[in-house]
From TrEMBL:
<keyword id="KW-0949">S-adenosyl-L-methionine</keyword>
<dbReference type="InterPro" id="IPR003698">
    <property type="entry name" value="Lipoyl_synth"/>
</dbReference>
<feature type="binding site">
    <location>
        <position position="286"/>
    </location>
    <ligand>
        <name>[4Fe-4S] cluster 1</name>
    </ligand>
</feature>
<protein>
    <recommendedName>
        <fullName>Lipoyl synthase</fullName>
        <ecNumber>2.8.1.8</ecNumber>
    </recommendedName>
</protein>
<keyword id="KW-0408">Iron</keyword>
<dbReference type="InterPro" id="IPR007197">
    <property type="entry name" value="rSAM"/>
</dbReference>
<dbReference type="InterPro" id="IPR058240">
    <property type="entry name" value="rSAM_sf"/>
</dbReference>
<keyword id="KW-0808">Transferase</keyword>
<dbReference type="InterPro" id="IPR013785">
    <property type="entry name" value="Aldolase_TIM"/>
</dbReference>
<keyword id="KW-0004">4Fe-4S</keyword>
<dbReference type="Pfam" id="PF16881">
    <property type="entry name" value="LIAS_N"/>
</dbReference>
<feature type="binding site">
    <location>
        <position position="79"/>
    </location>
    <ligand>
        <name>[4Fe-4S] cluster 2</name>
    </ligand>
</feature>
<comment type="pathway">
    <text>Protein modification; protein lipoylation via endogenous pathway; protein N(6)-(lipoyl)lysine from octanoyl-[acyl-carrier-protein]: step 2/2.</text>
</comment>
<feature type="binding site">
    <location>
        <position position="60"/>
    </location>
    <ligand>
        <name>[4Fe-4S] cluster 1</name>
    </ligand>
</feature>
<feature type="binding site">
    <location>
        <position position="54"/>
    </location>
    <ligand>
        <name>[4Fe-4S] cluster 1</name>
    </ligand>
</feature>
<keyword id="KW-0411">Iron-sulfur</keyword>
<dbReference type="InterPro" id="IPR031691">
    <property type="entry name" value="LIAS_N"/>
</dbReference>
Length: 297
């Protein structure tokens, strides 16, 4: 009798978690959406709605709102969660503030969110364009409230002072994840530096906001610690949403957080001293942003 070698079955790659039903969204349609689409194209504007593959684009654009991304659409950072293109920026348009302000007026936006890519190669991180965009928007649309979602200024506090001085109602900076995952998720950023940016914004007398993505492998106690750290550094408003992998080159989803878990995390955040928590699977930093302007400072 001949002993045949035992052939071991190939080890299958671990199956990716299947996207649950609560994360399914409708494709953007409708006249209001089409009108916003035309204005964005005509004015050669960038939106984080498109560049970030936001799942709420249909809902927000259908209501005639959008989040504008200034300073181009190429970022100097290479965060492992983000769909925005990474590279050497070639765009620096000093006329961009006027075009954004005029588009916001034409769209009759009641609440505008303005964000940007990281421009680490610029000495002032693009601060002058930031301030001018807010100032011109307020001049052309004095009834429009504004949130600015400012990226990590890499401890250039002079640049931050300029960015937050335009008269906006809400100033946001997303920490994105818990401290233990920073090297994986935001390799060119630092957890303590982001907290310091929020602290300095609050000390300047502003309404502060931040956001965290869940489902990257964080533990509940790490999230609670992040909430405590944010409160200690003067945060008013926190958004919690589900991380969704934009492409196969980005980080895998470690876990899909259930709506009930999101509801529990909202309660925890409020218990820990946050004034407002927007928490849900499809929540993104600018989701329902118009509600945040009334949060007391």
């Amino acid at each position: 009798m001949i002993d045949l070698p035992v052939i071991q079955p190939e080890t299958a790659a671990p199956a990716r978690p299947r996207k649950p039903d609560w994360l399914r969204v409708k494709l953007p349609v409708g006249e209001e959406y089409a009108a916003v689409r035309r204005l964005v194209d005509e004015h050669k504007l960038h939106t984080i709605c498109e560049s970030g593959n936001c799942p709420n684009m249909g809902e927000c654009w259908g209501a005639g709102t959008a989040t504008f991304m200034i300073l181009g659409n190429i970022c100097t950072r290479s965060c492992s969660f983000c769909a925005v293109a990474t590279g050497r920026p070639t765009e620096y348009d000093l006329d961009e503030p006027r075009r954004v302000a005029e588009a916001i007026k034409l769209m009759k936006v009641k609440h505008a969110v303005i964000t940007s890519v990281n421009r680490d190669e610029l000495k002032d991180r693009g601060a002058s364009v930031w301030r001018e965009t807010v100032v011109l928007t307020k001049q052309l649309s004095p009834e429009t409230t504004i949130e600015t979602l400012i990226p990590d200024v890499k401890a250039n506090w002079d640049a931050l002072d300029v960015m937050i001085s335009g008269g906006q109602e809400v100033i946001s900076h997303n920490i994105e994840t818990v401290g233990s995952l920073y090297r994986l998720v935001r390799p060119q950023a630092r957890y303590d530096r982001s907290l310091e940016q929020i602290r300095r914004t609050k000390l300047a007398g502003h309404r502060t906001k931040s956001g965290i993505m869940l489902g990257l492998g964080e533990k509940a106690d790490e999230l609670y610690q992040a909430m405590d750290d944010l409160v200690a550094n003067g945060l008013d408003i926190l958004t919690l949403g589900q991380y969704l992998q934009p492409t196969k080159r980005h980080l895998d989803v470690a876990e899909f957080i259930t709506p009930d878990q999101f509801a529990h995390y909202k309660e925890e955040g409020l218990k820990r001293g946050l004034k407002y928590v927007e928490s849900g699977p499809l929540v993104r930093s600018s989701y329902h942003a118009e509600r945040h302007v009334n949060v007391p400072i």
